[in-house]
Hints:
Layout (H helix, E strand, L loop, with lengths): L3 H6 L4 E5 L5 H9 L4 E5 L3 H8 L10 H9 L3 E4 L10 E4 L14 H13 L4 E5 L7 H11 L9 E5 L18 E5 L2 H11 L6 E3 L3 H32 L3 H8 L23 H11 L5 H27 L8 E5 L14 H11 L3 E5 L5 E4 L2 E4 L5 H6 L2 E4 L8 H7 L2 E4 L12 E4 L5 E2 L21
Parallel strand pairs: 1-2, 1-4, 2-3, 4-5, 5-6, 7-8, 9-10, 9-13, 13-14, 14-15
Antiparallel strand pairs: 6-7, 11-12, 15-16
The site of ligand SAJ has 18 residues, from helix 8.
Amino acid sequence: MSSLADRIRDRTCRYGVLGMGYVGLPLALAYAQRGVHVVGFETDAEKVRAVQAGESYIPDVPAAALAAAVASGHLEATTDMSRLAECDVISICVPTPLSKSRDPDVSFVDAATRSVEAALRPGQLIMLESTTYPGMTEEFLLPRFERLGFALGRDFWLAFSPERVDPANRTYGIENTPKVVGGVDEASTRMAVEFYRIAVQTVHPVSSARAAEMVKLLENTFRSVNIGLVNEVALMCDRLGLDVREIIAAAATKPFGYMRFDPGPGIGGHCIPLDPIYLSWKLRTLEYRARFIELAEDVNLAMPRYLVERVTQALNRLGRSVKGSEILVLGVAYKRDVGDTRESPALEVIRLLRDRGGVVTFADPYVDSVWLGEVELRARPLTPEALARADCVVVTTDHTAFPWAQVARHARLVVDSRGAVPRAEVRGTLVPLSGPALEGRPGGPAEAPAAPAAAGRIQP
Length: 460
Ligand code: SAJ
């Protein structure tokens, strides 16, 4: 019987992917396309049916490629977790959300670990890919396997490798996104590196699973903190009477030592709002306060309310209140060109506007409806009439597909948290995220604001 290392080397290993979501399905497909036999494990029977039928439910996974992998016999899916025993290598790719009290919710990893435990047998490599706090692989998974009498490095190998799947990213996919890998021991690191080298061009080993867990958290904490910084700069610019987008665009001309982030209505998605909290939570158990993470969270979470204040003031200037006003929100997805509304700040903006008595509708080409508690709001078509009828249009997601020039020409009042509306086309009133409003010319394109006088240059 060849060893696990041999089976990885000659690609005869059987690979189990536990969790066939936006991380697991692309991963499973990448290995199936390289001739590895892959079994996808799901608790959702509908996902299993779809995979078996070659129907893709992940936009980044082409149905044709999925169908071909299934037809080739290299990819199958099942809800039967006992079949994990067939697999030599297992990746756990399940959600790691936050609980209602904003603490790590490890229930999905716990359930997946129980399935692996029940099927554990000598000769398996187990890898956790779900983003989690430093120490989880070693402190939560390892003891569960050892207490069954299995020995690390003899019977099983255990590693962590952060997922770096970026939905809708046309440039980077599984194969060309470098993979960081850290084993609970050195042999596990080596085994996991060899396995990932089958499908990934660049594999970067680190000294431990804990290090690999921390790498991912640094990556996404870096984003959360820098987004928090530019959001606070927006709040500063508002008090200084400056347009934050002008300031950021100018700063971004610096070709070194600066990385552009843009302010907005807050942060959404299943990564950036959550991952840093896994780190600050863990550090609190070590009696350390992760102040940057907490401050960024405070600023980012305050942005929806700040935006609603801008809407309120804009309506007040027109002698109206939010109460009774028709407000059209453009975009409920958490970022442009995706249909994911998880943690979307737009939902909080809508909730706050409704709480103030606003009559709120939304348009989003990627989202049919959203639930606000017990209330379902269905997307409305974005038409010139809808734009003209709204007392206020609020831009929360800058989808490429939105007709921005049309928005500029037909909206009487637009509060734009994303800098998406072309100023030269504005006919009504444009209120940016910070700084003075722009009054368009009703009869035609607004005068583009004069270029700010360059410091020191005497106007003719
Ligand atoms: N956001 C801003 N300003 C910015 C950038 C983002 O307000 O300058 C907001 C977005 O609108 C969104 C939230 O932050 O609401 C998160 O945006 P994101 O661009 O970070 O997108 P995500 O959540 O899809 O993050 C993923 C992450 N990928 C993984 O964790 C594997 C992240 O590490 C990637 O850097 C990011 O995609 C990416 O670059 O697209």
